[in-house]
């Protein structure tokens, strides 16, 4: 009897992915995530992984080797990857593609956890690239990534939507063709968008950056292109409609191309005086910014 029990125990011990071993299938990825210890790192081999609502309960790093595409062949409840409360996630060299959900908020990453780090990833044709409802003390870093044609097209989904965080920092990242929604919608305490491109393309995008809970906002050294078909004629929004406190707003060193005839640089519905300096303004196709004045070669807003 003891021998039979021993054999059964061996048969039902889960097989773990060994350190350094490549994951090659969606099933293996699910198993590896379930079995991973806190702080584990998993590497995905090139290929396509059909997953939905993959829940991540512990700190985890996911890296792609080669062209790695995550998608779901059916609607998701929340998104492709779903870090849970208290869990931090780091993703590198992954593509998140085509996520939809019944509530029209399907996200490449639905972040309900603590910290989120995104390096060299691409989010394309999702209802939300990233939708974060996580820890108010969490920090979100995004670098070297692309957000292409995200948004359901109803104005309620965006390239990135952060409902709460201590910090959202975006560096060297490209947003193109967000559909009707905002490229970046942030309710974080601090928001930094720097050295990046925010291009409406043909997506009829709304605000380039929407900070509707105030906070400390820095928009620096970006290229920003407002298309003639923009869903909103204003480029930046800063208000307290979602609560919060007006702390600071700096718009500095950006190259801003406007193609809207009666566009506006900024909607500021707070008592804060923004710092707007050292920006280059370019009007194309008859566009102009009605809240800016050009005197000689200088434009002031």
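-> sequence recovered:
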């Amino acid at each position: 009897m003891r021998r039979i029990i021993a054999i059964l125990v061996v048969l039902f011990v889960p097989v773990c992915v060994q350190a350094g071993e490549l994951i090659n299938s969606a099933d293996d990825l699910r198993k590896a995530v379930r079995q991973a210890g806190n702080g584990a790192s998993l590497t995905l081999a090139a290929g396509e992984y059909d997953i939905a609502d993959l829940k991540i309960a512990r700190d985890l790093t996911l890296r792609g080797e080669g062209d790695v595409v995550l998608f779901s062949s059916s609607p998701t409840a929340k998104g492709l990857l779903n870090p849970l409360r208290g869990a931090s996630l780091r993703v590198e060299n992954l593509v998140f593609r085509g996520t939809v959900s019944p509530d029209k908020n399907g996200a490449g990453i639905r972040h309900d956890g603590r910290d989120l780090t995104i390096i060299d990833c691409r989010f394309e044709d999702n209802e939300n690239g990233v939708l974060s409802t996580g820890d108010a003390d969490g920090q979100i870093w995004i670098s070297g990534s692309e957000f292409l044609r995200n948004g359901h097209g109803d104005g309620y989904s965006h390239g990135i939507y952060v409902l709460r965080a201590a910090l959202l920092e975006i560096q060297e990242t490209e947003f193109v063709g967000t559909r009707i929604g905002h490229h970046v919608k942030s309710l974080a305490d601090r928001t930094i968008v720097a050295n990046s491109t925010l291009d409406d393309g043909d997506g009829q995008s709304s605000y380039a950056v929407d900070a509707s809970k105030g906070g400390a906002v820095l928009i620096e050294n970006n290229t920003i292109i407002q298309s003639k078909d923009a869903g909103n004629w204003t480029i930046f929004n800063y208000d307290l409609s979602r609560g919060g406190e007006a702390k600071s707003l700096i718009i500095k060193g950006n190259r801003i191309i406007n193609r809207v005839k009666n566009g506006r640089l900024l909607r500021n519905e707070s008592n804060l005086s923004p710092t707007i300096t050292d920006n280059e303004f370019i009007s194309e196709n008859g566009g102009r910014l009605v809240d800016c004045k050009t005197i000689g070669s200088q434009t002031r807003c």
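The chain has one domain: 2-300.
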